[in-house]
């Protein structure tokens, strides 16, 4: 289950891509991975180098694609962790210690291309970091200087209609989340104008109302105050199909797991706005509905959310940001589970350990005596993990494994 492989050094990676006859881009299924692959795909397109982008939902999926035969002169770039032999000739942008997007930015610049700073920053935000922090400062300054970003009052949502954006956003949790009519009713107390006529004062009023509702919700935890702060004073994207930087990050996260082809097209600047927003709305609606009807349990260091149906990773992320009294959240669904954390430490060892425990679990002597060994696949990202398994796994086994490892 090791994810060790050989990652090319910058110089050798650049040389390999410059001479490649064809490039396979295999991306991790999250907003960071999608942004990273989009940056590289655009650079390759500008060089007229043929390429193909696919998204692998788990480490196993990416590994199998990376190990599939290629023609002489072809290069494989894996965005995310993978389990490949040490001799595999590939470029690896693992994105564990720093976002894959920043690794892609370095590689694109080495190729002599100019990375899109808005897409790069959106990938960083999707990966859980703040735009302009640390080594992203120059990206933010570049985007501001070029007029690609404009900071303003309000909230970071993908649409010009704040009610639509807030109702379906997975970056906020308030009593009206997931319900467009309820969100419109809530905002009616802040502004009377139509969404296309909002001025700075209107945006401030909306931001204040949203912050109060999110922090003052009955189930909100102390973490909600810090989480809602990341939604306020957004960077608007006047030349982009998506209205704000934070909104773009939210859309990329949704598309990576539901419509990766549309997500890749959006990341490369193609006109897929309507399809992208439709997929984003549906994922947000399902996530909030699942959280509304979820069961919960609290353990030392772990908050467990049980859902019947819904996107487990989105539910885990929302709960970690707004509902969990513990730093880590485990969301357990039907055949899938997700972990999200507010802590900076990587979750890779934890997720791999849970997968090993589940694969090694013995079947129940009375009901599952003839059951096959549990088939478990997993994925690792920055501050998150994902597990997909067959239906014979009991939720208590996952919870016990997570408690032992966290």
TrEMBL record:
Gene Ontology MF annotations: exonuclease activity
UniProt entry tagged with the keyword Nuclease: yes
Keywords, alphabetical: Exonuclease, Hydrolase, Nuclease
Domain of life: Archaea
The protein, known as: Exonuclease
Organism: Natrinema altunense
